[in-house]
Give the backbone structure.
Amino acid sequence: MPMPQSSQSRYGSSTFGDPYVPAGGNGGYKVDHYDLDLDYRVATNRLRATATITARATMRLDRFSLDFDGLSVDKITVAGSPPRKVTHTARKLTVTVAEPIEAGDSFEVMVRYRGSPRPLRSPWGEVGWEELSDGVLVAGQPCGAASWFPCNDHPSFKSTFRIVVTCESPYTVISNGALTSQSTRSGRTSWTFHVREPMASYLATVQIGRYIRRDVVASPVVQRIFFPADLAHEVAVDFARLGDMVSLFSELFGPYPFDSYSVVVTDDELEIPLEAQGLAIFGRNHVDGAHGSDRFIAHELAHQWFGNSLTIARWQDIWLHEGFACYAEWLWEEERGGRSAEENAIRHWNQVDALPHDIVVGDPGPHAMFDDRVYKRGALAVHAVRRHLGDEVFFEVLRAFTRGRRHGSISTEDFVEFFSRSGKAGVGPIVSAWINASDLPEL
């Protein structure tokens, strides 16, 4: 006779268990779709919103949790009915359901909420919803999504989205996916976006500002730039090569994985450029009218393949995102007639060699996950595999990898296994030498 389940076994875990974001993610269910309806006042930083979440239980659930912080909850329903109990503590919204949800069942959660959104504190600084001098920037990596909507915030969970943002009409709103409708009433405009390709919650974004729009090219994919009017000349110069970059990376990495690519240049200065699914964000300090940020433009574009379409299933594998994006910088420079990828590999090997050899980039720890050595040694690992396989085989396998894992999750083990199918032994030891040991291999 089977033993009855304990009540504890029917509680979805309040964390995914990732040591890099120990409070992030939740167990017991997976989100299929987020429907976010946001009514925002730029002038006062006030948000009223409704999130409707469609999820599937992976176990019998009496209780589950969502990542959510900094905003007040007005109402929650599960399958249209009030839950038995709701607890809202720092970072977590915990819901005890009135009737158990059976494993495999789909269920809908509605959360109505309000407040003044703000970025969340983290070991990597403040992340999430951030006020600009006249607008909004959302940068959720790695744990900032909970600053503006209730979610299951871990990169291993990918979902489709519908995002509706209503704000004052003088502002332009940019978000992920396709803009499917826009309407204005009483001085306020609603913008509706649909994200049809599965997306990790940290890549969801909203950008609000007094921007003008320029359509760059329509091939091989639609490309748009949003920017302050006074930067029109600088933007025209600095992003003139964007279409060539998209074409090069589409040839080397495989077809661009989304329907469009947008660039936002904020009126504020930003510490670093940022990427989200289907777009990248730069500060006005990254635009100089002299191509001074070409490598950043290439880097953020490459994340559309490595980070947004192919997304790591655990944060310790961040080198796969950043190593490939860094390597894309070298490929673009070579294409433009500058240093070859080989020359850049030698140059950056010398730079990394001059730094302490005290980091394991395949598991750098949360405080070092954005260390420059993760980026550079990751790129050197990619280059070493390319050297080993030869250009024809390397890029053929790389295109097969991006095609086979399109809009899915990847890991270091997955990368090694896939590239080992090339028929040439030794890929595993090469990758391991670069990312699983602190000693720097010879190039």
